[in-house]
Design brief:
Layout (H helix, E strand, L loop, with lengths): L1 H8 L2 H16 L5 H4 E8 L12 E6 L2 H20 L16 H16 L4 E8 L9 H11 L3 H9 L5 E6 L2 E2 L3 E2 L11 H22 L4 E6 L2 E8 L2 H21 L10 E5 L11 E2 L7 E2 L4 E4 L2 E4 L5 H10 L1 H18 L7 H8 L4 H14 L9 H5 L20 H6 L3 H12 L10
Parallel strand pairs: 1-4
Antiparallel strand pairs: 1-2, 3-8, 3-9, 4-5, 4-6, 7-8, 10-11, 12-13
Length: 439
């Protein structure tokens, strides 16, 4: 459908009509009914033992294509305005451009290593917000939008956007009657990610302030409805105590925002590089309605497989097995070069690639690594990865407590990771110097 829409939008007359519709929606502070009408397709999740629970199924929401296009445009403008005004909490690494699960894994690894060199153990408590998107309160959402300070018409538009929505459910050949779905924001909408991030940002700022008032040194990471509390101390018992208190404060705040933690998905994990037997005490969350969280050897989080020493052996093994088909495709490059040039099978590979204009695989991988490291230069100033790097030239933002600037020269050499490599790459390409230095 998007392919056909791109062809249509190449015509200026068609494009101007869609732009006029988008402008009219904002100026009239109204989202048309036919854009609010959706169809929800129910698909069973694979490899389930039983399908007697709603959690065993996916729900795919199908919306009007023109409406989704206009939503994308509005989302782009809204995100630019929000990021420009630093409204999003720095620990939020989901629902926005330039932020991903990879950033969350990189930031967590750096935070752990930066305190390891101070002889501290890192303890984490991962939690999940149940039914996040359907639970967003419309009044609170509008209040947050008003605080951001966009055009008043935009705020009024969003008062009409999430209400009076209807959908019907489709399962195989069965189609249900139409139902009203006036709760939260739809997951199929292009505006849902930015609105959810906007909704959660004040909560994280309040939580951070509460913990600081209670003198609880706990860091935060957030990715959409998945959150992480990080405590770093020389004693596991002290960390468990801080995580327990933080979890209690967090639960109370979430309830005030109309949200709840799914206690069955809460996990605890401890990082320690000691070679001795490591047997931390379990974290008992039963007084808060949770479970007793026993220590384990591996932890899966946002696509990463962590072990307590950060060796990533299991992570590498898992993704290496998944990448076997990709590696086999790389080996086909020689065959492709021979086919393109009509050369002999015994022709040397380097010359074939040069004549055919194909970049060698090893150089292609080096290029991808270099791009990944230089990506940090294009990140917004309030991005967590940017804050963890050398921000000595940035006077507008407070330095992150785990930034490279907080480390001594000796400590910097003891840490190995993406952020250190990216920092060296960035300032190696764009060196800075003091014009008043005697040398």
């Amino acid at each position: 459908m998007w392919k056909h829409l791109k062809i249509i939008l190449n015509q200026d007359s068609c494009l101007s009509h869609i732009v006029n519709i988008a402008d009219a929606c904002i100026n009239l502070e109204h989202w048309p009914y036919h854009f609010k009408r959706s169809s929800t397709v129910i698909i069973p999740k694979p490899n389930k033992l039983a399908y007697d629970s709603p959690k065993s199924f996916h729900s795919i929401v199908l919306l009007n294509t023109i409406g989704k296009l206009i939503e994308k445009v509005i989302a782009e403008h809204l995100q630019f305005h929000i990021v420009k005004n630093n409204f999003i909490h720095p620990s939020q690494l989901g629902s926005l451009k330039f932020k991903s699960t990879t950033d969350a894994g990189i930031a967590l690894t750096h935070i752990i290593q930066s305190d390891w060199i101070k002889n501290k153990t890192t303890s984490t408590l991962a939690f999940n917000i149940t039914q996040f998107f359907p639970s967003l309160n419309h009044c609170m959402l509008i209040f947050s939008l008003a605080k951001v300070g966009p055009n008043p018409k935009v705020t009024s538009f969003f008062e009409d956007f999430p209400v009076k929505r209807k959908t019907n459910y489709t399962w195989n050949e069965f189609s249900s009657p139409t139902f009203e779905v006036n709760v939260g924001v739809g997951q199929g909408s292009a505006l849902s990610p930015i609105l959810s991030a906007l909704y959660l940002s004040p909560l994280l700022y309040i939580l951070e302030k509460y913990l600081k008032t209670l003198n609880i040194s706990v860091s935060l990471l957030s990715f959409v409805d998945d959150g992480l509390l990080i405590s770093q101390n020389k004693s596991i018992d002290v960390s468990n105590s801080q995580l327990f208190c933080s979890y209690n404060v967090l639960s109370g705040l979430l309830n005030k925002f109309g949200l709840n933690i799914e206690h069955s998905k809460t996990e605890s994990f401890h990082f320690n590089r000691s070679h001795r037997t490591f047997n931390p005490s379990p974290l008992d969350l039963t007084p808060l309605g949770g479970l007793v969280l026993c220590p384990k050897n591996l932890w899966k989080y946002l696509g990463f497989i962590f072990d307590r020493k950060l060796t990533f052996h299991q992570h590498i093994d898992f993704y290496s097995n998944k990448a076997i088909s990709t590696v086999k495709c790389m080996k086909l490059q020689r065959r492709a070069a021979i086919w393109i040039l009509g050369a002999f099978k015994t022709s040397p590979m380097e010359e074939l690639e040069a004549i055919a204009g194909l970049i060698p695989i090893k150089f292609h991988l080096h290029k991808l690594v270099g791009r990944s490291q230089l990506r940090s230069a294009s990140l917004p100033e309030n991005h967590l990865i940017k804050n963890l790097m050398d921000d000595s030239l940035n006077t507008r933002l407070n330095s992150h407590p785990h930034s490279i600037n907080s480390l001594t020269a000796c400590q910097k050499t003891s840490i190995k990771g993406h952020i250190i490599d990216s920092n060296n790459k960035l300032y190696g390409v764009f060196p800075s110097f003091s014009p008043l230095n005697l040398k």
